[in-house]
Design goal:
heterotrimer, A mainly alpha (about 80), B alpha/beta (about 400), C alpha/beta (about 350), A: about 80 residues, mainly alpha, about 55% helix, C: about 350 residues, alpha/beta, Peroxisomal Thiolase, Chain A, domain 1, 2 domains, ten-stranded mixed sheet, 11 helices, 10 strands, about 35% helix, globular
């Protein structure tokens, strides 16, 4: 799980072009949207693409993203849960 | 004292018709142009319906009486046909008899050919036919059409996403009102391309079924393609007595939502401002608006914002409104021009066109669009076009007396 | 026509950004491409959304905001932008992606930022400006039509402050295509564009924004007092007829400085020498595309140059066609330009 979280942080930085950030800047359980990293709806779409391209996982509706993308931690949990 | 601007000609090509007559017939018969993609070669044609003009490029070239052997993008072909129709319907025998301009709008120009070039170019950058890439830029279709029409006094291209051709019409009106030109053919054209189809798909706002604008369960938009042009003239031009005047452009406004690059604001600020300012310019109160031809793409976001704006402005007395995109799909930059033609047809024939496939009222509001053809004398019609980059435009057409 | 330039900002292949006077030395180029000297965006465009912006959008937004800051106006009444090719980098990225991925699972950001009105849209977003917002994309007249639109707006709104400008970028891909089209010189070209006898030009890029209003006061840098545009002239006499009409309407004289859009392409530069000989043989002659390269909106750069010349009353020697005597006073500058022999523009600026 730790490895997945570390990998996810790198991938998020690349996918969202967060030029100034390092994985250390992203807290695992802090909210990604709103106050946290300050991501917006365009980033949400990019995260959907990330999930599909890198993990083969699809979100049927953008609205499901609210829970899945709450934090890096929740994203990792979602990915893990789909592996079973 | 600025000159008044009247409309003496119209031309239109879209999924529901290759000219004004065919278009009207489809509207009266509630015949939508949305169907399975058959002309554009795309990997997602099985899952995403669209409103294509049902003619190949070769058929469009022939319909436009254009020479074989010239390389035209599909955007140019569509525009040529509609612009020539407009000129002819305005009975303009000699384009040089008055100061005449051509202002056209497009969002991706010749992208339908550029992507064909790119298929090869991407493999090896010495491949791909250059003729497919020289029609790429937005101004190319404008110049090709202006040259064909013989117009040279003023030529311009406007590209503001989905509000583009409404803005082109506005620019034309200003040039006339301020005395720089006597008449302008203004509108826009956009062909369906893999670029735009997939672009909108990446935003997850395409409907996999025929779209349902303003419906509570709407899922998104259907892409469309086409072209729509008006001939705008100064009201005091010579010879106007012998022409049919389809209406007067009494008001217009362009504002910016300044909320998000692609989404519109929940408080509908930009949309409210655009419609309000257009009415203010015309000196017309909300109570006098007889019909709104809405932007109504069918996306959750736009339709909510637009009904919010309508509710805020019109309060207790919501005028009849409908989205004709359920017929034509979203024709992107051409939408403003196409819907300007439809708005003028609604005034001419005294008909409010139905909002097809509407079933359930949006839970936020207590009103619905018009769902059946409605015969009614229309004096003032508002046409909305809202685009990416927060660009909001409204045109107000009034019966000419 | 009458509009006043209150402030300017320009990013170009020269050290133009932030310059209140024209650089003493030019950055000279050989070859066939000039890239812009871009500022450190972390300092000058330190905003979260910059992470999504391509070079074109950064150049456009940066010059627009810088120009506005210079003017003291916080929110303009209109934002009008021009571009010939728009956001090439984003368009190319999305196109490449959709082909490579066979239209599956596409990242939306480059599509969103590929629309031609992104620069104007992003400026509005950053300023929370709900006002008039247009983008003109008509080839070699994109900037001139932008100015025309600004004039129309000021006529309808005399108290307004209009932020108007134009931007274009050259990418690796678009440059490759220019090479294949024979539009640019050979890589090792060292031609002086004033006297080149080979085809092709030097590709350039840049962005320039202007704050325009009706105030002829001490803040004004220069006045824009005339624009004429025409396209696809059928004969040379049609070109001369337009120019002579402009000369007569504006009472141009030999005291004026004419800036020619010479770009070194032997196939289309001849007209500049013809016009100079027949219409302006006694006037001072300058050129500018050796400083910015050729692109659809290069006249925005020429307008920036002209505004600073008129304000500071200094004409650097590197801009003159003939290395002749010093120009002591410049009251008016006429920019005469064409793009590929298709779109022609005459743009007149005056000292305030």
């Amino acid at each position: 799980m730790e490895d997945l979280i570390a990998k996810l942080k790198e991938e998020i930085i690349t996918q969202l072009n967060l030029e100034d950030k390092t994985p250390a800047d992203i807290q695992t359980d802090a909210p990604l949207f709103g106050d946290g990293l300050g991501l917006d709806s365009i980033d949400a779409l990019e995260l959907i693409v990330l999930l599909e391209k890198n993990y083969g996982l699809k979100l049927d509706k953008p609205e499901d993203g609210r829970t899945v993308f709450y934090s890096v931690g929740s994203m990792a949990e979602f990915i893990q849960s789909k592996k079973k | 004292m600025q000159r008044r601007v009247v409309v003496t000609g119209m031309g239109i090509v879209s999924a529901i018709g290759n000219n004004v007559e065919e278009t009207l017939k489809s509207l009266l018969g509630s015949e939508s142009g949305v169907s399975k993609i058959s002309i554009l070669q795309t990997a997602i044609s099985a899952t995403h319906p669209a409103a294509e003009v049902k003619k190949t490029n070769e058929e469009l070239r022939a319909a436009g009486h254009l020479p074989e052997g010239n390389f035209y993008s599909r955007t140019t072909l569509l525009g040529m046909i509609a612009a020539k129709q407009a000129l002819s319907s305005a009975k303009i025998a000699n384009v040089k008899s008055l100061r005449t301009g051509f202002i056209s709008a497009t969002s991706v120009g010749g992208m339908d050919r550029t992507e064909i070039f790119y298929d090869e170019f991407l493999k090896d950058n010495s491949r791909g036919h250059l003729r497919d890439v020289i029609t790429h830029d937005c101004g190319e279709s404008t110049e090709a059409i202006a040259a064909e029409l013989g117009i040279s006094d003023f030529v311009d291209t406007i590209s503001t996403a989905c509000s583009s051709s409404a803005n082109a019409i506005m620019m034309g009106a200003k040039m006339i009102r301020q005395g720089h030109l006597d008449r302008v053919i203004a509108g826009g054209t956009d062909a369906l391309s893999r670029f735009t189809l997939n672009g909108f798909n990446s935003l997850m706002i395409l409907d996999r079924l025929p779209c349902q604008p303003f419906d509570e369960n709407r899922r998104g938009l259907n892409m469309g393609e086409g072209a729509g042009y008006l001939v705008l003239e100064a009201h005091d031009n010579p010879g106007l007595d012998e022409k049919e005047i389809f209406g007067e452009l009494t008001g217009y406004a362009n504002t910016n939502d300044a909320y998000h690059q692609t989404a519109s604001s929940p408080d509908a600020k930009g949309a409210v401002m655009a419609m309000t300012q257009a009415m203010q310019m015309a000196g017309i109160s909300p109570a006098e608006i007889d019909y709104i031809n809405a932007h109504g793409t069918g996306t959750p976001n736009n339709d909510l914002t637009e009904e919010t704006a309508i509710s805020k402005i019109f309060g207790e007395r919501i005028p009849p409104f409908s989205s004709t995109k359920a017929f034509t799909g979203h024709t992107l930059a051409a939408a403003g021009g196409i819907e300007a033609v439809l708005s003028l047809l609604s005034i001419k024939h005294g008909i409010v066109f139905p909002n097809l496939r509407y079933e359930v009222k949006m839970k936020e509001f207590d009103f619905s669009p018009v769902t059946e053809l409605k015969k009614q004398k229309l004096d003032h019609v508002l046409s909305n076009s809202f685009g990416f980059g927060g660009n909001n435009s409204s045109l107000l057409f009034s019966r000419w007396n | 026509m009458a509009m006043y330039i209150r402030s300017v900002s320009c990013i170009s292949p020269q050290q133009s950004f932030g310059a209140a006077v024209l650089p003493e030395e030019e950055i000279s180029f050989t070859g066939n491409k000039m890239n812009a000297v871009e500022p450190d965006y972390k300092t000058h465009l330190n905003i979260p959304s910059a992470r999504r912006m391509s070079r074109l959008i950064k150049m456009g937004v940066c010059t627009a905001l810088d120009c506005l800051k210079e003017s003291g106006v916080s929110v303009p009444d209109a934002i009008i932008a021009g571009t010939g090719l728009g956001c090439m980098e984003d368009s190319e990225k999305f196109l490449a992606s959709l082909i490579t991925n066979n239209e599956q699972t596409l990242s939306p950001t480059s599509f969103i930022f590929s629309t031609h009105n992104t620069v104007a849209g992003q400026i509005a977003l950053l300023l929370k400006c709900n006002n008039y917002n247009f983008t003109h994309t008509h080839r070699g007249l994109s900037f001139e039509n932008t100015l025309m639109d600004a004039q129309l707006f000021l006529n309808d709104n005399p108290q307004a402050q209009v932020l108007a400008g134009a931007s274009d970028e050259v990418t690796e891909t678009s440059f490759k295509i220019l090479q294949r089209l024979g539009a640019v010189k050979k890589e090792n070209s060292a031609d002086d564009i004033r006297s080149s006898v080979s085809p092709g030009t030097i590709a350039g890029e840049g962005s320039a924004f202007f704050l325009l209003n009706n105030s002829a006061d001490e803040h004004a840098l220069a006045k824009i007092s005339g624009i004429t545009t025409f396209s696809n002239p059928e004969t040379e006499s049609e070109i001369f007829s337009n120019i002579n009409k402009f000369i007569s309407e504006h009472h141009l004289s030999s005291d004026d400085l004419i800036l020619y859009g010479i770009n070194g392409d032997v196939r289309s530069d001849a007209i500049y020498n013809e016009v100079r000989k027949k219409c302006f043989d006694k006037s001072y002659a300058g050129y500018f595309k050796h400083l910015c390269g050729e692109y659809h909106t290069a006249t925005a750069f020429a307008t920036w140059l002209s505004a600073l010349i008129l304000k500071n009353q200094q004409v650097p020697g590197y801009m003159l066609i003939n290395d002749i005597d010093e120009i002591r006073e410049v009251n008016r500058i006429l920019i005469f330009n064409h793009y590929k022999g298709r779109e022609f523009a005459l743009l007149l600026l005056e000292k305030c």
